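I had to read the description of the data format several times before I understood it. For illustration, here is how one protein appears when written out as sequence plus structure tokens:
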Amino acid sequence: MPIKNGKLILQREVSDFSERFTVDPANLLSVGTVVSMASSGNYEIAVSSGNTDGRVIGVIYSLDRTVNPYVALKGRCIVNVRGAVAKGDILILSAYQGMLETNNAASFEAIKARS
């Protein structure tokens, strides 16, 4: 949870474009998990498989009691990261499932070539 001046922020300060997708209810998803289009099965999305996943579409934005979570496709939202992140850092897919990491040496061309 975000903390500001030593106090927990309960209201999220986010702005995004999101859509609902179906997900396997057996998957343990949390807000901020990076997801990709499912390659098989009856569900539309699955947790990103790591830094070689070329099917990534967005980040779990909101969960409710359905199997259709909101996925932020664009904009500002909470995201799970591996390691320290500073404002302005370039985020790329992490080797860890469902997470991003910083790589300020990455160029747009290198990121685009992965997908």
Q: What stands out?
A: The chain has one helix and nine strands. The CA atoms of residues 32 and 101 lie 13 Å apart. The mean pLDDT is 80.
